[in-house]
Design brief:
By secondary structure, this protein is α/β, with parallel strands linked by helices. The protein is built from nine helices and eleven strands. The strands form two sheets. It has a seven-stranded parallel sheet, sandwiched between helices.
């Protein structure tokens, strides 16, 4: 395999690569910097041998050219990212159901951070639109820190229709919007629900807002700088759902 593959084939960083190995994500080949050592590197070597994944030792400068300076001495060539089937995920939700819809999140680092929070706080799936939105790029996978190996991410052609399907299954649709009529804490998240997070700059599109049963805002003590970063807002909203569902 040539080293001149597109960046979309790459996973970099010790923990993202190790998590891919632990969860048996298909990897074609590993490149490890000469002299790299430590417990994580040792486990990467061990798991690569067990899975019969070929690896090469390379100069750090070669890894820099492939993945930039933050590769942490490990780069993996991976199969293209795969998305879960939305209808399958919707049909197999466990109680109390929680799905997270993302309306045109553009920044892959935000996407990855949101997926990581969603997994940690109990979401059963993340849904993104196929167009005008970040996908499961290497940057998103790295920011997710392995969460995509446990949490299904669905890519749909029409977010509004997917919301309509979720509503037909009895899920309460709550959109997060800076101008929402109710505070986040006023909603009842003990019921099966969907959280919808808008894009970094424009928030929720109007047609997406119309599919929501409620539009909620996050109360803030200081509002001079406007709305919160999308990944921060998602984390706060997910934690409120988690908090309400504690016994």
């Amino acid at each position: 395999m040539s080293d001149n593959q597109t960046p979309d084939d790459l996973i970099w960083g010790r923990h993202p690569v190790l998590e891919a190995l632990r969860t048996e994500r298909p990897l074609r080949r590993l490149l490890i910097a000469k002299g790299a050592h430590g417990p994580v590197i040792d486990e990467i070597f061990t798991r690569a041998r067990q899975a019969h994944i070929p690896y090469d030792l390379r100069d750090k400068a070669q890894l820099d050219r492939l993945a930039g300076p933050r590769h942490q001495s490990v780069v993996a060539y991976a199969a293209a990212a795969t998305y879960a089937d939305f209808d399958h995920v919707l049909a197999h939700l466990s109680a109390p159901a929680l799905l997270l819809f993302l309306d045109q999140i553009q920044d892959p680092h935000n996407l990855g951070a949101i997926i990581r929070s969603a997994h940690a706080l109990g979401a059963q799936g993340v849904v993104v639109p196929a167009r005008s939105a970040a996908g499961l790029s290497p940057a998103a996978l790295k920011a997710a820190a392995g969460a995509t190996q446990y949490l299904p991410v669905c890519r749909v052609d029409n977010l509004q229709k997917a919301l309509q399907k979720a509503a037909a299954c009895g899920l309460f649709i709550a959109g997060l919007d800076a101008h929402g009529e109710q505070p986040l804490t006023a909603a009842d998240f003990t019921q099966p629900c969907v959280l919808v997070i808008g894009s970094e700059g424009k928030g929720l599109r109007r047609m997406v807002q119309k599919r929501c049963d409620a539009l909620l805002h996050i109360p803030m003590q200081r509002e001079a700088i406007g709305s919160l970063n999308a990944s921060v807002a998602a984390g706060i909203a997910l934690y409120e759902v988690f908090r309400q569902r504690q016994p």
